[in-house]
Please model this.
Amino acid sequence: MIRISWLELLQDIQSCKSCSLHENIQNKVPGQGNPNARLMIIGEGPGAQEDREGLAFVGPAGQLLTRMLKAIDLERDEVYIANVVKCRPPGNRVPSKEEADACKPHLRAQFALVQPRIILLMGSTALQQVLSPDMRITSARGKWVERKGIFFLPTFHPAALLRDEGKKRDAWHDMQMVRDKLTELEESSP
Ligand code: URA
Model:
């Protein structure tokens, strides 16, 4: 497999015009964090604040994500955070299949560079783009899917938790699953 470098990937993202999303943005939002993280988190796409700052998950949903990570003793800079699409969809709409497909080489490259052992899929866009378009977040959340030694855990998107407090209990359960899996992996590979 030919592997591109981080620098090439960031340049590719910055110059990408593979779909029309780039036409209405202030900044590309490639993703950020520990390039060797065991845990990679995938969201949907940048919102308004992310678009202004060029950083993933820095708005209200991102602040909740930071607290959720802290609750399992993780700092943001210990994990790698990315989105399915790197450009903000107008009005925060869900990215189309074509837009997500156009951006997929970037996500694949991030995955190949980070080589995480665990991937937390936040919300249905991440779930459907990464695992299967037929999966539903309500039934898939909280259940591990293992593929080629990588553990995927679908969970609610933090924006959904902000809209519906009733989902927080399940989300907390999912975060504990992540913590337990990280511990298990650390114990089995020193
Ligand atoms: N929602 C996402 O899915 N990603 C972000 O970066 C911010 C909000």
Observations:
- The chain is about 45% helix and 15% strand.
- The first helix runs from residue 6 to 15.
- The beta strands are 32-33, 39-43, 80-83, 118-122, 145-147, 150-155.
- The mean pLDDT is 97.
